[in-house]
Amino acid sequence: MDHAAVLALFDRDMREGARPFGLDSVVERVGGVVRHVGPEKGWNGVLWSDLSEADADAAIAEQVRHFTSLGLEFEWKLYAHDRPVDLPRRLRAAGFTAEPEETLMIAEVGELDLDLRPPQGIELRPVTDAAGVDLVADVHEQAFYGADSSRLRHLLLTQLAEEPDTVVAVVALADDVPVSSARMELIPGTRFAGLWGGGTIEAWRGRGIYRALVAHRARIAADRGYRYLQVDASDESRPILERLGFSRLTTTTPYVHPAS
Known about the structure:
Layout: H1 3-16, E1 26-30, E2 33-37, E3 45-49, H2 56-69, E4 74-79, H3 87-93, E5 97-98, E6 102-108, E7 122-126, H4 130-143, H5 150-162, E8 167-174, E9 177-186, E10 192-200, H6 209-223, E11 228-233, H7 238-244, E12 247-257
Parallel strand pairs: 3-4, 10-11
Antiparallel strand pairs: 1-2, 2-3, 4-12, 5-12, 6-11, 6-12, 7-8, 8-9, 9-10
Protein name: GNAT family N-acetyltransferase
Keywords: Transferase
InterPro entries: Acyl_CoA_acyltransferase, GNAT_dom
């Protein structure tokens, strides 16, 4: 894989050329910033920017004014190669708080081992309705130690109702008890399928369930003609993904600004 070329393609397709996450959202370009504006329970924030030392502070202030005027918390999704180089300092000075850094990892679907299956006793069940979304949210809260699942619920329910072809969600069950879950975003017209939300309840980790969920989604992405898989990987999932054939391209850090 040509890392620089694939990263440039990712920036163009998935960031600068981003599409709304649902029919209740819009993507707007304001100067050197591409932002996503949705409902309170949706994702709001800056997806891409092309700024200089001369205009960065004004662009940041404009985004703060815009989102706070709407009463919305929002995220500036910063990548390590974004400019200017002191953008993290400028965001902190404007009232943003950095969340844990993640690693952008990408793999060519055709180079992955797609034959990985779930361990014995584990069933992978597609999520197609509100009951399935409840299972995914339940796993999310347990796997991420009490994390709020309201935004995830809203996102999945909206996608399944309005654009079901753009999302694949799956829950792993052990004797009908949900123990792991994950989803995949499929954006029409792009070459990237995004893997999101993969989490396993602590007592069930280390058994190959996460790997099986990656392979399961990769098979679907391959069937639908996507060339690349993309993951914002945590420190826990990064080694697993590397063993599966994913490459590290850069890092990304969410900078969050409160609603007021």
